[in-house]
Amino acid sequence: MGRAMRGTRHAIGVLTLLAESVHVLLAAPAQSATVSVHTSPDSLTVGDPVTVEVRVEAAAGDVVTFPRPQTPAQVEVVNLETPPAEAGTWMGRYTLSVFDVGDIVLPPWSVQVQTDTQTAIVYTDSIRLHVASVLDDSLAAADIRPLKAQQELPVPLPLWIWFALAAVVLALALFLWHRRRRRRRVVIAPAAPAIAPHEAALVELRKLEAQQLPASGRIKEHYVRLSEILRQYLEAAPQFGFTALEETTDEIRRELRARGYRPQLVQTLLALCEEADLVKFAKMQPTILECDAALDRVRRFVNETARTSLLQLRESEVAEVVAT
Q: Would you identify the CATH topology of the domain 2-139?
């Protein structure tokens, strides 16, 4: 290990500058200008900062400018400093970072020299750098292979997850068993027979009669309820079957005549509806006997039309017309 470390220190490369003072390409206005280059440090490895100082000697009164140079991709210009000129000497100090090993050649750098009337560009020669590897010969010669890919090992599920899954499965099984058991116990009860429309109307009439609303002065309420029972029967009975609850008395009249009911039936039904309208809207005050008589007329109308079909009602009308 000691020999390897000593070999490594010895192998940390040397920065070689092949031209400390380089030839200068001069234009006519700057023939008296000279340029020199100095680099540091002497040894260089990958990533180490490199200082390149470009010194220009020019005539008094000239102005020297150091543009930012173009460098290869593996060389980065980190900083550029231009200290104040002293006695005709200008300095451009560049800080570089090198990210490669071996010989690296930098292209000529330009320096601008300006007189009172003209401007010239001065170029340095190419600058060659040498960056040594941090590995010594023994390490470089060693057969170092890349690491193998990590082997994927199966990760067992935690024990609590297995318990949770078992609990879910058990709960689902109990739910399905209980649901199936309840279905077996369900007894389908026979549906209650639907009450016939005329029977429902007669039941409501008996209830209204038992309330004795006219005797307590509630005559209008008696007729409102009586009209509702009659109109509900007209909607539910198949021999009528129109929306009597939503229609006025005039609309009921037009409905009965359009369907061809016999005149006597139409007259009886309209008389009941008009009498209820007079009490509700014209504030007519019938006697208790008249209230009871109105209820009896509605009951008689329901009983007479309960077992009569629409066809029979119309045939009666036709028979009457033929007889006349």
A: Immunoglobulin-like (2.60.40)
